[in-house]
Design brief:
The protein is of the alpha/beta class. It has one domain: P-loop containing nucleotide triphosphate hydrolases (Rossmann fold, 3-Layer(aba) Sandwich), CATH 3.40.50. Helices cover 49% and strands 15% of the residues. The protein has 9 helices and 8 strands. The chain has helices spanning 18-29, 36-47, 56-64, 93-102, 106-121, 132-136, 150-163, 170-186, 208-224, and strands spanning 7-11, 32-35, 68-71, 78-81, 84-85, 125-129, 142-147, 199-202. Strands 2-6-1-7-8 form a 5-stranded parallel beta sheet, with helices on both faces. The radius of gyration is 17 Å and the shape is globular. Bound molecules: 2'-deoxycytidine-5'-monophosphate.
Length: 227
Amino acid sequence: MPDSRLVVTIDGPAGAGKTTLARRVAAALGVAYLDTGAMFRVAALRLGPDAPSWPGPAIGEALAGLSFSLRGAGSDTELLACGESAGDEIRTEAVGYLASTLATLPRVRAFLRQAQKDLGQRGSLVAEGRDMGTVVFPDASHKFFLDASPEVRAARRTAQLAAMGKPADPDEILADIRRRDEQDRNRAEAPLRPAPDAVIIDTSALDVDGVFAAIMDHVGQGRRAPA
Ligand code: DC
């Protein structure tokens, strides 16, 4: 980075463990945490299910009033949309899939990319998403790409939902994950892929502590390296 900000990017597919790790790394470093998937989800909720068939200008108009900010730091960082906390209603599979569909539209990506870059200007942060290391923060201090098999990711998601008292059919969750992977990896703009300089971590056989230790080890090495 051209200044002293510390920017750590964590990209990867749904269910790879990005959110848990990004929060923990942000807490350990004492910096803000940015969940860019939540921004796509907020946009999806605002635009609604018919938006993918709207003409570009209508999408632009609907997005125009949407603003984002961050409050706090570490694992308590809150993403605010138009000054209000982004609520739990963005966390459904349906909103996730609509977010993924809207994320294929260049107009939506351009709007959120600018909002993400603006939030990055605010100071050091850990940013998680699909294109943080490739597109939004190409000069990040440290880049990570977390991956795991679709089966492992679906099992984790199913367990998470059960813990939240929302039991779900594991086969349906696996199908949802495959459908979203397909769309996120194959879109023309900013497809999900590791940046050439990202550290790739397969989390299939690692627990959260193991992945956290691996990330912090890299971040620590980078900090000790001569400028
Ligand atoms: O991380 P998530 O599952 O909450 O993200 C929801 C969708 O948003 C994801 O399937 C694709 C899109 N997304 C994106 O295209 N780029 C990002 N940086 C973050 C999310």
